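Re: weekly structure request thread

Next one in the queue (246 aa):
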Amino acid sequence: MGSDGRPGHARDAMTLPHTVAPHLDLPSQLVIPLESLAAVSAGVTIALGFIYLFFGLRVFRVMTTIAGVIVGVVAGIPVGEVLDSRITGMVMFAILFGMAAWWFTRWTIALPIGLIAALAGWLAARACGANPLACFFISVASAVVVGAPVLVWYRGAVMILTSLHGASLVVAGTSTAILLARRLPLNILETDGHRVGHACLAGVCVIVLAVPAFCFQQALYADLPIEAEDADADAGKMAGAKRKAV
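Done, posted below.
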């Protein structure tokens, strides 16, 4: 029971200093209601989802770079501990991963997808009782079969990924907003005994949103030059070369 006498009030709010920065001496009166935080998160998730759905090919590189910076920050923590400075390791790896994601976007997408396919092929081969050498060749073949098309048909792969990702974000954000509007606990989807039904409904909603979004992106970017997919900077270089030629 919270300080205002309502049951669960303390559960609906979190004290920011003790959650985010427990080592800092911040005022304990600074409190953020979890319900408001979840509402903001749902709105941002829905907005990002629609951006992916409608403009996925344009924003993909920027979002991939941001994700690379975040991954670099996390990966730099153990290196920073070795260097006796977490900040140094986080900044170094954030810059490294961010630059790699920006300049080699195709590879930063194809490689993880290929590695996931290789892992799936390895696990499937092991489940069938294959020996380690056969598992190795099967995993390599899986990586090539799945990863190579991403490099060759980069535009289509990005449109498919952004359409599915955007649809998933919209469905997740809308589900959260519905639960908040009905004043239901956010974990009810996992505890009400209908997880399979909820998952099937979410999958159908994702497909219903992703297919039209993919077709929309195909029509919207039909005249976009292939070079413009990789980077605005690359397009700028081409424009500069054309000006020099003129």
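The chain has ten helices and two strands. The first helix runs from residue 16 to 20.
Next request, please.
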